[in-house]
User: What shape does this take?
Amino acid sequence: MSVTYKNALPLIITAVLAFAACKYRDSGPGHGEKPKISFKSVEGINFIEVSRRQKNGLSFNEYGYHLTPDWRLRFVSDDSAALYSPVKDQYFNFPLALGTDSVFNIAHAFLKMKNMSRDSLTFELLEAQGDSIDIHKSRVVMKLYSEPFIKRTGKDLKHLQAASRKDTLFVRGLVAKANADIKKAFAAANPVQLISKNPNLKVTKRKTKPSLLDNKYATDDDYLTPTYDIVIHKAYQDFNYSFEATVDSAGVWHYNRPLVPFLGDEDVKANYIKVSTGIMNTYLKLFMTTLPGETLGMKHASTISVNVKGIMAGK
Assistant: This one.
């Protein structure tokens, strides 16, 4: 469910108030005397994120998750900034809280500005732990160019936001490992596609709508553990099964584990696995076309979750 700006506002204000009370961890002298950052020089300029990378320079991690550059930002005033919502196709204003040493907070994110000009911004995403923010420990570096700069220089936005050669080499290594051993499967940027080829089977991939409140991070589960709801009409009996499977680079299913608790009843668990594996090997493999997940154009093994509901004929 998406979060509207009206519903999000109380939570954002809470985050801003908490930010104002946060303690900064800094071993340097005179930290408390450092002035707050000002965005006066760049107010009113639309900036577009062109890269989001870890400190090692990669935009992919070992689990296959891609840090997608998707922010569009405009500083409005001393205490307000606007973020673009692709869902609403418009900018929304959010409270902007300023801290010392170039630290600021917007839309639930704690950031430290590294470089700022009318052409570009570079800032780090800081880690918050309890009521403290470690200003020397950041996970991610985000770079944005201004719209006037992009237009003036004729730069291609898609090219700017594309994965680097370093990313490609890293992902290629992950693909080789996953395809040699499906236990090393990783999340696919373009997830598995399940296409029904039988009118009695309907498949729906769950999708969380991104929210400005959490900087789109609420959709991480969609990426890392894609989930599919499958309904089979005219089944041999009514049933409901949930399990995890790995789809290899050839689109072949491999059963992993059930996704329901059994409270120590091993017989019930064994029967559940047996029946759900049978359903996978019959209905799912025969009634659907399965296309493997891909990352940067490379097919590879990836893990999915499925919820399968059978409805007996005549119902």
